[in-house]
Specification:
224 residues, mainly alpha, Rhomboid-like fold, 10 helices, globular, protease, Peptidase_S54_rhomboid_dom
């Protein structure tokens, strides 16, 4: 039998004496934040106009690369994304640990908007099209779940079908940013790949920093 490194980080190894696993506190906090921002946005539209992302806005207001992940177009957009976030967060936050989960979420959200920037036409309407929602971040988490499941030799057929359908819908239905989905998915897969390849903390920190710097460099190059 071949032995593989433990896919769960060493500093997050489960305690066999613990009767219940820890609650997904970060997942819960993210959902509360998104719901709260949505509520404030209904009362004060300035909240959404401050956080919404479009390539032409990101150069002078880079906080929009992450801020737009906390606002949603309508109630059902919010509900769908929060339900998906709850499902996948419950699955992978305990496995990766809180700070890695935060990194996965934040960098996937940024990566989604970076993809929107890179794939937009500076002379066309796509450069001025607004993008909102946690979909890029959620796709990143699903990508991380896929990597973790493969590492544990689990059946990933259903997950692949789900991802494939949602990616295809982004190309078919209007009002869905397939660029954001694709960018978030790529970032989530890359980060999770490095997280499960080693259980050394410094390796995880280095991988997180490398992905963050790559995204920052891509932004700078595109605006240069």
């Amino acid at each position: 039998m071949t032995e593989y490194p433990d896919p769960v980080p060493a500093d997050r190894a489960p305690d066999p004496d613990r009767p219940r696993r820890r609650r997904p506190a970060v997942t819960t906090a993210l959902i509360v934040m998104c719901v709260g921002v949505y509520g404030f946005g209904r009362l004060w539209p300035e909240v959404e106009s401050t956080l919404i992302f479009a390539p032409w806005l990101g150069e002078t207001q880079p906080y929009r690369f992450i801020g737009s992940a906390f606002i949603h177009a309508d109630f059902w957009h919010l509900i769908f994304n929060m339900y998906a976030l709850w499902l996948v967060g419950n699955a992978i936050e305990p496995a990766f640990g809180r700070w890695r989960f935060i990194a996965l979420y934040a960098l996937s959200a940024i990566g989604g908007n970076v993809a929107v920037l890179v794939l937009s036409d500076p002379t066309g309407v796509s450069y001025f099209t607004f993008v909102v929602g946690a979909s890029g971040a959620v796709f990143g988490l699903f990508g991380a779940l896929f990597v973790l499941a493969k590492r544990l030799s689990r059946d990933t057929t259903a997950l692949l079908i789900l991802l494939g359908i949602n990616l295809i819908l982004g190309f078919i239905l209007e009002g869905i940013s397939w660029q954001s989905h694709l960018g978030g998915l790529i970032v989530g897969v890359v980060l999770a790949f490095f997280y499960v390849r080693t259980n050394r903390l410094w390796g995880h920190i280095a991988a997180t920093a490398a992905v963050a710097m790559t995204l920052a460099g891509t932004i700078l190059l595109n605006y240069a």
